[in-house]
Write a structure and sequence with these properties.
The complex is a heterotrimer of chains A (396), B (339) and C (298). Chain A is of the alpha+beta class and 396 residues long. Helix content of chain A is 24%, strand content 30%. Chain A has eleven helices and 20 strands. In chain A, strand 16 and strand 17 (330-336) form a beta hairpin. Chain A starts with a strand and ends in a 6-residue tail after the last helix. Chain B has one domain: Orthogonal Bundle (MetI-like fold). Chain B contains 15 helices and two strands. In chain B, helix 5 (96-103) packs across helix 15 (306-338), helix 12 runs antiparallel to helix 15 and helix 14 (292-303) packs antiparallel against helix 15 (306-338). Chain C is built from 14 helices and no strands. Classes of the chains: A alpha+beta (396), B mainly alpha (339), C mainly alpha (298). The A-C interface holds A 13-14, 50-52, 71-73, 75, 77-79, 81-89, 98-99, 102-103, 144, 148, 154 and C 119, 185, 187-188, 190-198, 201, 205-206, 208-209.
């Protein structure tokens, strides 16, 4: 039974803050993914758990035991590094047994034997590290981590150095291994798709803070902030800035005079184009938003409704196809509409569109994610929760 | 700051009970978990955490006691009247040692010699080193031939200074030397007596010094040439540049910082050359080859004016500091300007 | 053997064909090789001149001298060992160099490692200091050091020579080792530490990887201390503790007439270890010479 708790962690390097006030609980046996853009502090958090960084403030608790001041070697965790950090002058066997020897086990040989069988590298144990392929090195690195049966695994972008096809395979393999062993695991990645695929839960990190923690479904379906909304999912969620008018329960896109406000940039939303004379009105149909407040509406590309005939009914507006990409099962259509930033729509691959064509576009109100444009936080609405439950499987 | 709302919700996927159980009965894991560190462990940890500083202590101690302190000591001694025979008797005399040195007529000769010796030797070393480096940096030469040549070119640097001096003394030997034998064969009836001649001794000493110093410049320039990405040459080639244009627009501007640094470093070495001159001529004949380093040494250990010798040492040190300052400026420009 | 000959024949034919097709390029290449070979000969000449004297008979060197000895003898090589104090100097040199190498490696390796691996306060200042110390002239330190050693009663011992030689080479060693560790991934020690090793143990685990840099430091320390002249000349006065450069110097300065064959023989013996070392460890020697690991285009 191993739980990892971070309690008010601050870490800085030479006065530069890397992590601020992070509280996080990793439950027993789960695989938690820390995901975020590079430099967001996710690796620092992992290294703090491992004991390679000492926090300026806060506590690290592993298994109910306060380990903040405990050196890395006493923490009973194992860390898999991005570049694997295998000792090039030792054989595979010596690498696998390294931690065992350091910690003074007597049954090193048997354990190495078992682990090399689990990871199917039994035939390689007497090779030198230089003779191994990338995938084999990855397995040895994993083997070295699990051989001591540590209380927790910490994985620092272990897949980043593998080529694309191998990465897909190792993703599944690591997730399965973790499931089989049932060891509490923290996995760091910058790849949101990897985070959604592998994680039991996902913690999105931004600027040294946790932006959202939840299951992959929660993070995908109800992102807590504009940042999470834009970061998770591919192609990225459409984010449109506008002003809410409670009389018609709709948001007028591009009508926000504060569009050039620097806050917009920090919230990760590009202000609308300069031609704000012509704008689009998007009915929200949820209520609960303060009248005349600046909001950001998010809608996933797969939820944008597109129809070939022009429609004049409520909520539909015209958009021109600027570009399209065929992706096999899907097709990404990039649309331009007056007063709007470019909109991405994801339509079935068999549908045909041509550049320059004018289409009718609608954002179904139940699919919209409203955010406060100033704070970037999600605006809680009653109907949102129901639509989540009804929403089909997303980008998984 | 979002607090961890997820922790209060039920887990969507409970871990498989059996896999958890498999870890539980493992006694070995439970045994080695001490909740806190014992006192010796804590002490050990405190030491271990300061390991990098401990690693630096011997080097720091050595440098502080045998480099930094002596520099301070030299300045101090230069302000005292001290004789070699009785080093503990030190009379404070202020700057009078410096005054004596500067007003010494030999000192003027020494400074002139130093300028000639350093200037000519440095130019010779860098020019020959650069030339050979450029010649040697040919891919078609092949690895083995390049290594063989480099080994031959590097030999002088590995040779003991005293032996270098002997070799050239022998080469310049008026009767038995290779140089005069060659000159006689070329029809020079009375070749110079070289080391015994006030006119030619300096030239002989400079030749020996250049010979000794070429390897350093060669290696330094080779690393400079190798720092120029071969892609640039390929780009120049594809772009239709002639070999001369390539040298003019690629090699020269990119190599210039290395040449500048090389010049300064070699100046530094040459200012402090002692063994070659000391063994070849001992500063003679008639102070003709007496450079600053020799003058300092002789003032201390032949004349026995130890305080005055320290004044010369401080002057020598100041000269070095000036060159190092020049080096740092060149280094800065080399880093910021071209790269 | 036969196939090798055929290979050579084809190689020569290719070369000839290329020469006929590109006469200018061939001329330039021949000129380059000739220049390089001439330079190499010129550089080797002074050493050859001295060393060849070792094989010339004692009866006196022929005047006018010949490029090759008329009669080759090995008497000088044995005589210098049997009849002079040279063996003592040689043994002293071996002792001094061996201990300098050990001390320099033991002091420079951890220091270079610490500077490479840890974000130390004042690290930049320290590296700059290392660079400056490397440039401070030993010569300006000779007089104050002499006074210090005299006051401590340490003059005329091998220990003083060894310690001073070590100070001379430690900065370069620190620099070489730091630069080398900079190229090794830091994760290695972190992996060791998470795996249960102390920082000290982690250092020892990765130490074998730094063998090239430690080797370069050792070669550099050996060559510098082996050739060192001013330090033993100044700090030692009795023959029993002279290293060979001082011995050789006294050898020539004490007597009016130089015995060139004997001097050549002694020089040859003295240079032998360095020549072997430099030939065997050319890369390390070159690295120590330029203070960095170059080689190979980036």
């Amino acid at each position: 039974m191993t739980e990892i708790e971070l309690d008010g962690i601050d870490v800085s390097y030479d006065g530069v803050t890397a992590v601020t006030g992070v509280d996080l609980r990793v439950r027993d046996g789960e695989l938690l993914v820390l995901v975020g853009p590079s430099g967001c502090g996710k690796t620092t958090l992992l290294r703090t758990i491992a004991g390679l960084e000492h926090p300026d403030a806060g506590e690290v608790v592993i298994d109910g035991r306060r380990v903040t001041d405990l050196p890395a070697r006493k923490r009973d965790v194992s860390l898999v590094f991005q570049d694997f950090a295998l000792f090039p002058h030792l054989t595979v066997r010596e690498n696998l047994s390294f931690d065992l020897r350091m910690q003074g086990y007597d049954d090193a040989d048997d354990r190495v034997q078992d682990v090399s069988e689990i990871l199917e590298i039994g035939g390689l144990v007497d090779r030198s590290i230089d003779e191994l392929s990338g995938g084999q090195k990855q397995r040895v690195a994993l083997g070295r981590a699990i051989v001591t049966e540590p209380a927790a695994f910490l994985l620092d972008e272990p897949l980043a150095n593998l080529d694309a096809s191998l990465r897909e395979r190792m993703r599944t393999e690591i997730a399965r291994l973790q499931d089989d062993l049932g060891v509490t695991t923290v996995h760091v990645t910058h790849d949101q798709a990897e985070a959604l695929t592998m994680g039991d839960r996902v913690a999105v990190v931004r600027d040294g803070r946790i932006a959202q923690v939840g299951t992959p479904e929660e993070v995908y379906r109800s992102p807590a902030s504009v940042f999470v909304a834009g970061f998770v999912g591919s192609p990225a969620m459409n984010l449109l800035r506008g002003r809410y008018d409670s009389d018609v329960d709709a948001v007028e896109i591009g009508s926000d005079e504060d569009a050039a406000d620097p806050q917009a940039a920090t919230a990760g939303v590009e202000p609308a184009g300069e031609e704000t004379n012509d704008s689009q009105t998007v009915p929200v149909g949820v209520g609960g938003i303060e009248d005349d407040s600046a909001v950001v509406l998010g809608i996933r590309p797969e939820h944008v409704e597109v129809e070939p005939e022009r429609r004049r009914d409520d909520g539909w507006f015209d958009a021109t196809v600027a570009f399209d990409e065929f992706r096999g099962a899907d097709r990404y259509v990039y649309l331009e509409a007056a007063g709007c930033p470019e909109i991405t729509a994801r339509v079935p691959g068999r549908s045909s569109v041509s550049v320059g064509e004018t289409l009718a576009v609608r954002f179904p109100p139940e699919r919209l994610h409203p955010f406060d444009a100033d704070t970037g936080q999600r605006i809680a609405t009653g109907e949102q929760a129901e639509s989540e439950a009804a929403a089909p499987e997303g980008d998984r | 700051m979002t607090d961890d709302a997820g922790t209060t919700r039920p887990d969507h996927r409970e871990p498989d009970g059996s896999t958890v159980a498999r870890r539980e009965p493992d006694g070995a894991i439970a045994d080695r978990r001490e909740p806190v560190l014992t006192l010796p462990e804590r002490v050990f940890e405190a030491v271990d955490r300061r390991l990098p500083y401990l690693f630096l202590v011997p080097a720091l101690a050595l440098v502080a006691s045998l480099v930094v302190y002596p520099v301070v000591r030299a300045v101090e001694l230069s302000l005292h009247e001290v004789v070699l025979i009785n080093l503990s008797d030190q009379q404070f005399v202020g700057l009078s040692n410096y005054a004596t040195v500067v007003s010494d007529p030999v000192f003027a000769t020494v400074m002139r010699n130093t300028v000639v010796f350093v200037g000519a030797s440095v130019l010779g070393q860098v020019a020959v080193g650069l030339g050979l480096a450029l010649l040697l940096e040919r891919r078609w030469l092949g690895g083995r031939l390049t290594r063989l040549f480099r080994l031959a070119f590097v030999l002088p640097w590995a040779t003991t200074g005293v032996i270098v001096a002997f070799s050239w003394q022998f080469m310049f030997h008026p009767r038995m030397g290779f140089v005069n034998e060659t000159l006689r064969a070329l029809g020079v009836a009375t070749p110079p007596t070289w080391l015994n001649s006030t006119r030619w001794a300096m030239a002989a000493v400079i030749v020996a010094t250049v010979w000794r110093g070429v390897p350093f410049s060669l290696i330094f320039q080779t690393s400079g040439l190798q720092s120029i990405p071969s892609r640039l040459y390929e780009a120049a080639d594809v772009g239709g540049a002639s070999p001369v244009q390539t040298v003019r627009h690629v090699t020269v501007p990119l190599l210039w910082p290395f040449v500048a640094m090389n010049l300064v470093l070699v100046t530094l070495f040459t200012v402090n050359v002692f063994d070659i001159v000391f063994v070849m001529t001992g500063g003679g004949p008639l102070h003709a080859t007496e450079v600053l380093s020799l003058y300092m040494y002789e003032t201390a250990f032949d004349v026995g004016a130890f305080g005055r010798a320290n004044a010369v040492a401080v002057i020598l040190f100041g000269l070095n500091v000036a060159v190092v300052a020049l080096y740092l400026v060149a280094f800065d420009r080399g880093n910021g300007g071209v790269r | 053997m036969r196939s090798r000959l055929i290979e050579l024949r084809y190689h020569a034919r290719d070369r000839l064909r290329a020469a006929r097709r590109y006469p200018e390029r061939t001329a330039a290449r021949v000129a380059t090789v000739v220049t390089l070979a001439t330079s190499a000969a010129f550089i080797a000449l002074p050493l050859y001149w001295l060393f060849s004297a070792a094989f010339r008979p004692q009866e006196g060197i022929e005047v006018p001298p010949t490029l090759f000895p008329g009669r080759v003898t090995f008497d000088n090589l044995t005589a210098v060992l049997a009849e002079t104090a040279f063996p003592t100097y040689f043994v002293n040199s071996v002792v001094v160099s061996a201990l300098t190498v050990v001390l320099a490696v033991v002091i420079a390796t951890p220091a270079g490692y610490a500077l490479s691996r840890y974000d130390l306060r004042y690290e930049r200042a320290f590296m700059l200091a290392v660079l400056l110390v490397q440039m401070i002239p030993l010569l300006a330190l000779v007089t104050p050091l002499y006074q210090m050693f005299a006051a401590a009663g340490l003059l005329d011992t091998l220990a003083v020579v060894i310690v001073t030689d070590t100070v001379m080479v430690v900065p370069v060693g620190i620099w070489l080792i730091k630069e080398y560790f900079d190229t090794l991934p830091e994760g290695l020690e972190e992996a060791a530490r998470v795996g249960g090793a102390t920082r000290l143990r982690a250092f020892l685990v990765v130490l074998p990887l730094a063998r090239p840099a430690v080797g370069a430091t050792a070669v550099f320390a050996f060559v510098v201390s082996w050739n060192q002249f001013v330090i033993p000349l100044t700090f030692t006065s009795s023959q029993a503790v002279w290293t060979f450069p001082v011995g050789l110097y006294e050898f020539i300065s004490r007597r009016g007439v130089v015995n060139w064959p004997l001097l050549g023989a002694a020089s040859l013996w003295a240079m032998f270890p360095v020549l072997v070392l430099v030939a065997a460890f050319q890369r390390q020697f070159v690295a120590g010479l330029s203070g960095r690991f170059g080689g190979g285009r980036r």
